[in-house]
Amino acid sequence: MRSPILFLVLSSALSAPVAADALRDAATETFKPLPSTIPALKENTVTPEKIALGKALFFDPRLSASGVFSCYSCHNLTTGGDDNMETSVGHGWQKGPRNAPTALNAVLNEAQFWDGRADDLAAQAKGPVQAGVEMANTPDNVVATLKSLPDYVTWFGASFPEAADPVSFDNMAKAIEAFEATLLTPAPFDAYLNGDDNALTAEAKAGLQLFMDKGCSSCHSGVNVGGHGYYPFGLIEKPGSEVLPEGDKGRFAVTETADDEYVFRAAPLRNIALTAPYFHSGKVWDLSVAVEIMAESQLGEELKPEETAQIVAFLDSLTGTMPEVTLPVLPAETAGTPRPTTMVE
Amino acid sequence: MRSPILFLVLSSALSAPVAADALRDAATETFKPLPSTIPALKENTVTPEKIALGKALFFDPRLSASGVFSCYSCHNLTTGGDDNMETSVGHGWQKGPRNAPTALNAVLNEAQFWDGRADDLAAQAKGPVQAGVEMANTPDNVVATLKSLPDYVTWFGASFPEAADPVSFDNMAKAIEAFEATLLTPAPFDAYLNGDDNALTAEAKAGLQLFMDKGCSSCHSGVNVGGHGYYPFGLIEKPGSEVLPEGDKGRFAVTETADDEYVFRAAPLRNIALTAPYFHSGKVWDLSVAVEIMAESQLGEELKPEETAQIVAFLDSLTGTMPEVTLPVLPAETAGTPRPTTMVE
């Protein structure tokens, strides 16, 4: 009488991996694990010298007119690569128009900013430096600052050995892009995609299944679980104006096409549990609430509480191991270094 | 005929170390090399757990009401432990009243702040967190923030194992003090004091000699080449009101003693070449000019240009090796974490 029972146990033991593999197979078609090496950049060879230069620039508050803000200020690498504010505070205590996205894994996004108006991180890096509400600087003043610091001149020379005039605003942006390309955060979900069944809890696996079945992964797919493709916020049902302020028409400002009103890039979801508050407006602090709003506005779905919890468990599995970043030592000002100006024009 | 020449050569070879030793002997009586270990703190045992907690707190912008500023914002460890501004920019873009001093080696100062109003770094750390023009927070809100983050609760427990209620404003300050106690920057001058003749250039040695002969070291002495003792700024001749603004009466605000008008703590001079602009007013960007102003106002001395250059060469030898600081990974907000407020009251 014992053999049938033994058979049943064996059968279920055997069938579990099959089911797990089916889920992994579906996930593998939809997502992609993080690469184990620094991604190649378009027209920007990554070298150790360029990474080191880019790190120095990323941390240097002298890229801002006031000397108060560096890239790190809003893309804080201690707190998930963002600043955990609704919208960032910038020059003169002005508030930025949209929530600061994380710099972590951003190199893998198809385009940058909430409206995708920058093709890559090199193009992106030039934006905040010049934005009046952010760092409020000018390319000329940045270059004058960098050229006044002999170490930077050396570092730019080593990073761009073939350039006639290595210290330039474009090369600043390329070096920052090279550093940011190192900011990858492998997560339990990557281990799962790579074949480790134990990397995800049962709840996270159920959440992954739901994430695909309900249609979340129609937009949030690929290596960054989002970060590519543009979709109207409120495809099925527009969220309230608190979450989707009427004044910000998203990608419409880039394309000036009526179809692009309130269209945004699908947010990349790696480390999403670390980067509250949510949405371009930064108005939602609770990840469960953000999931519910997405389900309703984009899919017309009202999630059961346990479904929301499962999807959140899956999203938690996207929280990765932070890169180890040692602070750079920046060159000291010289007599020729432009002085910080905290004046607001 | 060759022996007398040989004798002369030998004699000068022998006499050089004697002269160098005389300078070192005098220097050793006046200054002290950095310790090779973390200094003991008053009523604050330093443990690895406490250092790690203190580092997290030092970098955490949630210690400020706005979520914009951390200790690191003004005590930037990439730029000499200060912010390289005349006076810091704080909550609501307000400007602080005095130049931010470096956090590097600050543990070795006899008292903290320009007017010495805090006995130690634990007392100091509580100041900016609460100052309306700096981080504008309250102890209650800080403790509520920290208690809302389970990792912090664990870290405080491990750092203060005997405390009944480990997460407190006082313990926050003690942990920050423990981290700051690790921020020591051994410099060529230390190597010289420790016996390495080649650690200082001939110009720096001449500057060291002048620094003692002219009387600079009457105030700027000890392990931090300053950082203890209080002296009127303008002992012999008051500098202009641009450099010494009339509204800031220095230590008078602490002691309310007429003798303490315009009295300040002698600035610690380690890494001074990295921490322009100078003086409590932050009005002087050039170290040579600062040296000249000091010589005139405190000593009634007009330095020759080569003397200034020699003293600056000595001061350059106080620029140390920066501590290697790896960014901490901070806990993510929870539902209970007080939200940042960028409102200015």
TrEMBL record, chains A, B:
It is found in: Periplasm. Residues 1-20 form the signal peptide. InterPro entries: Cyt_c-like_dom (IPR009056), Cyt_c-like_dom_sf (IPR036909), Cytochrome_c_Peroxidase/MauG (IPR051395), Di-haem_cyt_c_peroxidsae (IPR004852), MauG/Cytc_peroxidase (IPR026259). GO terms for molecular function: peroxidase activity. This is Cytochrome-c peroxidase. Keywords: Heme, Iron, Metal-binding, Oxidoreductase, Periplasm, Peroxidase, Signal. It comes from Tabrizicola soli. It comes from the Bacteria. Coiled coil: none annotated. Residues 49-157, 202-319 form the Cytochrome c domain. It holds the Pfam family Cytochrom_C. PROSITE patterns: CYTC. The keyword Signal applies. Its main location: periplasm.
